[in-house]
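Incident log, structure service

09:12 report received: a user says their structure output differs between two submissions of the same chain.
09:20 pulled the input from the user's history:
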Amino acid sequence: MLVLIHGWCHDMRTWQEVVPTLSRHHRVIRFDRRGWGKSGGSPDPLADPNDLDDLFTHPGIESAYVLGHSQGASGALAFAQTFTKPVKALILYGAPAPAGFGLPWDGADRVGDLAALAREKGTQAVVPSLA
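09:34 re-ran on a clean worker, output below:
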């Protein structure tokens, strides 16, 4: 079992191109985080760990490899730290440093306050700022 968790401003389509390859060796589950894609509600990164825990209550999902991208990686890490569900491996791609590491995100790749930009001008305004 491999669970794929998308990052901020994305949805489960993020994984579209890699799912066929990953499915050769794993049962793959991808889902839209709250407020993104086909998921209802408002975006809420703090809900990610509980939503993942709910996923593990479905029959046939006893353990999994968990791969999270960006904000989804933060949720995956919080899930692994909070719940006792068996995570075979935790893969964190593009995640910020975990709380307590004291690493500021102020390097050359810093792009500013994307959340504020999205609130002011919509999520499509974020894409040009990343180029």
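09:41 both user submissions now match this output. Likely a transient worker issue. Closing.
09:42 reviewer note: The chain has a mean pLDDT of 84. Residues 105-131 form one domain.
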